[in-house]
Amino acid sequence: MKNLFMWCILLFMIGCVDKSSDSNISADTTTDAMAGFQGDPMAGSQVDSMMDSTNSSEDPPADPPTIQGLKSLYMGHSYFRRQAEAMSEYAEIAGIADHESQSFFRGGYNGSAFAIWDDPDSQATIKGYVDEGDIEMFGMTIFADLEASEEEGEHPENQIQGVKNWIEYAISKNSDTIFFIGLPWLPGPLDYIGETGDPHTSGYMEYSEVILGSEAGMKLFIDELRETFPDSEIFLVAYGQGSLELRTLYNMGNLPDVDTLVSNNGLLGIHSDTHGHAEQMLTDLNTLVWLQSIYNYDVLEFTKEYPYMTDIKSIAHDVATRQDPAYTRQF
Q: Could you tell me the pTM of the whole model?
């Protein structure tokens, strides 16, 4: 295993989600559905298209082509769960045809691909979905710790093997299954203090270095998976970069929708707790990134109304479109 991958993953994954032994499991099925960062986070305002009302001889614009949905299976932990559960609503609003999803979640390490494979009951549940042979997209995540011994599930090699186990099993039931690995945001938002020593006024540059480093590590992981399964489409959804955009705006004093970094004492933050779980704005932003990344849907056209002053649709569009095309879904 490549050392760069291990170190990058360690930076991201240690403490990423609660290491609680309590399972947090849910199943969700949805029919009808859905689809789909560079530049200044404040940029990206949409230019309204206008038709000349006097030129009535022109044909009206054609309706955009319908995006075909996929029967999807998502499994992961608390930094993965809320986006996956929101996909049903977002797919329906986006008009994606025949999207369906099954979701399975367990807290902390227990939501990693290896832990789900290693637990007989959880493995049986996921295999029950896969055995039908009609899962078209399978999304999962990992939970790695370089300090773990080789016997512990958190060890990077075990985490990698867990993903490989699921891919191998899934393609034995449907060789056309598409796979993605979700890379969430960083835990511990108050740990990044920057030059001022105060996470409320700086820290976004440190945060950026770590989250982009973790993405570099995940790309090595994707490379290894593709080498092992050359006939399968495997891509990365680095939706955690949306949190970097919000953190940057917050540190620069340009995020009017929140009062603080971490919610407390009646003040609304980007994160709901010091661990780093998401408040609703971050969840909405992340789900828009999922929508565009998975279905190539232009989230600038998404009709859901949000109560935010911040243009999260533009941010999500930038996050999704600036990804390295070598690691995104191929359309």
A: 0.83
